[in-house]
Amino acid sequence: MPGTRPARWVAAVPMAALALATIYPLVFTTNVAMKTRREYVLDRFSPADSFSLDNVVKAWTSVGMSRYFLNSVVVVTCSVALLLLLGSMAGFALGRLRFRGSSALFLGILAALFVPFQVIMVPLARTMADTGLIDTYPGLVLAYVAQFLPFTIFLLTSYYATVPAEIVDAARIDGNSVYGVYWRIMLPIGAPALLSVGVLNALFCWNDVLISLLMMPSAEHRTLMVGVTSLRGQYSDDIPTFAAGVLIAAVPVLVVYLFLQRQIADGVTAGSTKG
């Protein structure tokens, strides 16, 4: 069609500039992580003389990034599993079952989405300290669940609300209880939404710094992102080692985005259409 090609160029040029601005920090960080300290001081922007992983090995072994990485894997795995279990049960109940107060409960969950964590961080920290959960894995997991559960329930409720009522009625006629319908019908049907929400929550928990720093003050229990931020002060004169730590933290997120980008996009729009 006439005018289509210029219109594409008008859209392509700013998108290409945006893509370049997004990719350049990763390329720059990778290049710095491959340099020695001397090479970085002499010229921080020039390409590295050799492709060396010495800084990555140093950050992984000597600096303690391996321990931080393991802490993040344990916390994120447990948090996502608990979020999906509680979120799917609540989403099924609010999306498909009708009981007194369900609408008010759902509105309350929506209202919780608008409460910044900074508003509740002091009461949360005091509660966790009083119950002895500060600087423990269960404490951080529960903090993540409390923070991201409203988002999980909202998306899964929207998804389960689109499931035809005839499916639930047929399952009840076949003799399934409410729990049977949830376990045998709704969980398999909701697998795409569960995968999408699970990926989003994993990214949220993995990239978090504030909650982890509040709940895990000791160096032994730091998560990966908190460990990376601590490198900036500890190795302020060794930027290549700091860049290597950033690279270690970024690679898992990049892999997730690369292979599950469709699921991430579907998770944002889960339940927005019917049929």
TrEMBL record:
Entry superkingdom: Bacteria
Chain ranges passing through the membrane: 6-28, 68-92, 104-125, 137-161, 181-206, 239-260
Domain ABC transmembrane type-1: 69-260
Signal peptide, first to last residue: none
Protein name per Swiss-Prot or TrEMBL: Carbohydrate ABC transporter permease
Taxonomic source organism: Lentzea kristufekii
Keyword Ribonucleoprotein in record: no
SUPFAM superfamilies according to UniProt: MetI-like
Subcellular localization, as worded in the UniProt entry: Cell membrane
Record flagged with keyword Flavoprotein: no
Alphabetized PROSITE patterns for the sequence: ABC_TM1
CDD domains given in the database record: TM_PBP2
Keywords tagged on the record: Cell membrane, Membrane, Transmembrane, Transmembrane helix, Transport
Gene3D superfamilies (alphabetical): MetI-like (1.10.3720.10)
Membrane topology (UniProt): Multi-pass membrane protein
Family note: Belongs to the binding-protein-dependent transport system permease family.
